[in-house]
Amino acid sequence: MSTEPDAIRARIAELMAELPDLEGPGSAEVDIDSVTARLEEAHDLLVQALESVEKGPAPMETPDE
Q1: What angle do CA 43, 22, 6 make, to 5 degrees?
Q2: 39 within 8 A of 9, measured Cβ to Cβ
């Protein structure tokens, strides 16, 4: 998974674009399991991004002198 903010934003936007309009015509036929799956995927992506920020960057190796 990329930790680049723009890549994360783009992936979240992709997932949200897959969601149906819950207030428009045909909303009664919306597959709630599909909506749930997309939201869970977006949630997991955001949790992973936050965890990577909390861990911080990997320490850089310094050559022995």
Answers
A1: 35
A2: no
